[in-house]
Design goal:
The chain is an alpha+beta fold and 315 residues long. The protein has a domain of 155 residues: Clavaminate synthase-like (Double-stranded beta-helix, 4-Layer Sandwich), CATH 3.60.130.10. The protein contains eight helices and 18 strands. The strands form four sheets. Strands 1, 2, 3, 4, 5, 7, 16 and 18 form an eight-stranded mixed sheet that branches. The protein has a four-stranded antiparallel sheet with strand order 6-17-8-15. Strands 10-11-9-14 form a four-stranded antiparallel sheet. Strand 12 and strand 13 form a beta hairpin. The chain binds fe (ii) ion. The site of fe (ii) ion has 3 residues, from loops.
């Protein structure tokens, strides 16, 4: 169905905008079709559909095995979407929760009320950034992982674990063992419970790696992390080497050249592949802007079906 609708390019980059005809219900969007489009474009904006927070949540649930949140943001009603309130300053490009050991597959946005001016969300294709980086820099990131280290206050980590546990017990009863339980086995992280109940973690990850749906290597990470709501992490190479100024300059230049704006319209729903694209935002110039966010993990069955379809199409 999605393939029959008009598609336009999102600015200069890889992303796409799918425009619905008159009064087309968001519920008519097929989850596998949507994720297939996402595999191709990295970012899909659904525009002109009949949307509301309830329909948005239903769409998120239809393709997700688990829905997570950023505990530093307050709930918007319902239990899927959260209103974005990270101050007024611009936010650098980042992978959602990319400086933590709990990185979701997908980032979702629902625009209730667009800004009258500015305040765009930015998206940056990490696959294109990777192509722009020098051979020397690529080697450095292939040879070594990077690490993010910081302390997370008790209220924040217990809130997140409570969500990851799907509310199986009250937040006040969440324990350090629960934190270990909700951490995926393939994630390399060291935790330390501090006397004040905070948890210090050091999380190791490759700054560039194959994407979830496409297989191409993407430079997608939170090196340029904004950390509006938390203590900023210490970011360095795994062997303790700092990310020096020359390296940071190359990253800033390459990402700036691949960054596009999403100019929101009321009712827009957008989906971003968090394993391929980074996102951020321009400064907020209209405080009445209302944008909701959700984060989730893709259903493994949908990943398989999309990979299968793409494999068949390429054969
Ligand atoms: Fe974000």
């Amino acid at each position: 169905m999605l393939s029959e609708l008009t598609r336009t390019r999102l600015a200069e980059g890889a992303g796409t905008i799918v425009s619905a005809g008159p009064s087309r219900d968001l519920a008519s969007v097929d989850g596998v079709d949507l994720v297939e489009l996402l595999a191709e474009h990295g970012c899909v904006v659904l525009r002109g559909f009949d949307t509301d927070p309830e329909r948005f949540s239903t769409l998120v649930r239809s393709v997700s095995s688990r829905i997570t949140i950023d505990p530093a943001r307050r709930f918007a009603g319902g239990d899927v979407a959260q209103k974005i309130e990270a101050g007024l300053v611009p936010q650098g490009l980042h992978v959602e929760n990319g400086a933590t050991p709990w990185v979701p597959d997908l980032v979702w946005f629902y625009c209730e009320r667009p800004a009258t001016v500015g305040s765009q969300t930015t998206v940056c294709d990490g696959a294109a950034v990777w192509e722009r980086l020098s051979g020397r820099t690529r080697s450095r990131f292939l040879d070594q992982r990077i690490s993010f280290a910081r302390a997370m206050p008790e209220e924040r980590w217990t809130s997140l674990v409570w969500r990851l546990l799907d509310g199986r017990r009250p937040q006040g009863e969440v324990t350090f063992d629960d934190l270990l339980e909700v951490t995926d086995d393939d994630v390399d992280v060291k935790y330390q419970l501090l006397p004040d109940g905070a948890v210090h973690y050091t999380y190791f990850v490759h700054a560039a790696r194959p994407t979830l749906l496409g297989g191409d290597v993407a430079f997608a990470n939170s090196i340029l992390t904004p950390s509006v709501n938390y203590e900023p992490p210490v970011i360095e190479f795994e062997d303790g080497t700092p990310l020096d100024a020359m390296l940071m300059r190359e990253i800033l230049e390459a990402t700036a050249l691949e960054t596009d704006d999403v100019d929101w319209e009321a009712g827009d729903v957008a989906l971003v592949d968090n394993s391929r694209m980074m996102h951020g935002r321009r400064k907020i110039r209209d405080v009445h802007r209302s944008l909701f966010n959700a984060q989730s993990y893709l259903l493994p069955d949908i990943v398989d079906r999309v990979r299968h379809r793409r494999h068949r199409a390429a054969a």
